[in-house]
Amino acid sequence: MGEQERAHRYLGSHTGSANLCVDGLGSEGNPLTLLGNVRIDEFPLIAQSTLAQLLDWGDVHKFLGNALMWLAGLYAAAGIYHGLVLKDGVLASMLPYKT
Hints:
single chain, about 100 residues
């Protein structure tokens, strides 16, 4: 197990904020797992489907991770747009402290 994967597993298993936090990488022969080492590919509904044979779980993990980063970036950009262009107080309401 590489250094990056160990860090990913550590962070995934110690956040505790999301029950479905992915903590395994699937593209290097490791199964895609949820917290508690529950393997995605062993769920009966998934394991028996033809789609499961076609998927590379590492690609699924990569896509979902990228989608989450894009969503977070769009959220931040929208907040900055509201704060700098519209000046309507939305950015101030998103910040943890009052300005």
